[in-house]
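Sanity check

After download, print the first record. It should look like this:
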Amino acid sequence: MSKVLLRRLLFFLPTLVVISLLSFLISISAPGDPVDRLLPTAGTSGETGLVSKRIMEERQAMRHRLGLDLPAFYLSVSSLSMAAEMPDFQNPEEEEAWRRLTQLCGNAKAATNVYQAFDSWLELHAALDLSVLPDSAYLLVRQSSAIVRSLRQSGNTDLILSSIDRMLDRYSEYEGLNELSDGAMNTRSAVDALGTHTARWKNLVPVVQWNRQNQYHRWLFGDGHWLTGKGAVETKGVIRGDFGRSYTTKLPVSNILRERIGWSLFFTFTSVLLAYLISLPVGLRAAAKPHSLFDRSSSVVLFLLYSMPAFWLATLLLMNFANPDVLKWFPASGVAPAGGFPAGTGWWGRITGTIPYLVLPTICYTYAQLAFLSRMTRVSTLEIYGQDFIRTARAKGLSARTVLYRHAFRNALLPIITVFANVFPAAIGGSVILETVFSIPGMGREIVQAIYQQDYPVIVAVFTLTGVLTLAGYLLADILYSVADPRITWKR
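Expected structure tokens:
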């Protein structure tokens, strides 16, 4: 068994690598800039609306902390014109604009000079004493700062030059804006230099670079030691359960999952356990006596259960068993008293106080699986009943119970085991409808909220865990196959 387990784990390794790559690609391709979502001052720059040097440094420091200034993968293919150190960017749009300027002239240094001139121009805006300027000049400075920031993201030399010329004309209307005029002229000179220091032939020369430090390595192993994780500051890596911070709550994603996944796991595994405990005896008895009164009546009941939508049954149960006007047997929502348990309540009191909140949701989680598994057990067992070894067992004089449970049931388990493999990915996904109806703080509601709020770290974490748990379900199914049928050894 250990060899079988090791062999299956080795088969799953390439799939895990693919899952990690897809998750990473989703995280880096998601719209928006993580700095804007995580840094409180990223979207604002004070009362004047000017980009101060402090805010620029904060943005650059945050990008460095998140590893966004690193190459994406271990290998990167670029042109010879890009083989230079890039300036510090505040967002991905600026980096893309810098690349366009570099391709235009084939000179990365000349494009970097343009961005350094932009930085100096912005610093001049922040250093101005606005209190001595008239209101019209104050508004012009704010507008000029916004224009400079937009030009950093354009990558269009014609647009940059025309905008600079317009700003120079506006600056000339006020005596106190001579420093801004100097900054505009320096930027214009840097842009003009793109046309004089051209080396476009470098765009045709490919360059392959090995990046020991890259975003994928950091995302997977963290920013500490790749094997032990020691020295990690910002992230410990996905393989250690660190999926970064939520854009919405600013809390670690692992903490959010730890808080939410507990109830989803509880209802999923409880409902599966109850469904198997009830459906297997029902399906076996129906298969042992096909077309009997029990078989027909159970078929009608099971088909009715399977056809009822979960939200409809949940609403029906709440209206009849959590309604003060009908029967107030169970609470209507939540998983615990709204005000919490009284002080001094022991563990047994907490359990007995929580059980009433779990009865109705557990019924809604269980009934559909119960109906499906019962019919599958019946069909699988009937198929086994028609085989030769069952007739041989009967001819030997074995009792009907022995034939059913010792010979037929074990061979009918394979399709049921296959269904059981889907339990693990279902646990991480939760049930959006039932969690909403019963106000259960589970993964289903958390996923929907993450999608609406574009909280991509949470979405990527759920996607990654779903893939890993799916593989775990397949692995467990393979092991159970060999236990149920010794003929399955997974050997060539």
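If your output differs, re-run the checksum step. Summary of this record's structure: The chain has 20 helices and two strands.
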